Amino acid sequence: FRDYPYSPEKPAGTFRVAVVGDSFAFAPYMQVDDTFAKRLERMLNLNGNQRKVEVINYGVPRYSTSHEIG
How far apart are CA 51 and CA 70, in angstroms? Predict the structure, then answer.
């Protein structure tokens, strides 16, 4: 889990997106705010009239499809 801490209880009026993937999603050599998950979160939150969006990064280095479906 490489992200900021989030409350287990989703706040009212918030839409959550989970990013599941390998080292590309985890991005070990980047700052957390530069990962595609955080960039996606910023883009989805540009429209202030919609619900707030939290994109949570569950990327894990060396994961493969067999890990993700198992």
Answer: 32
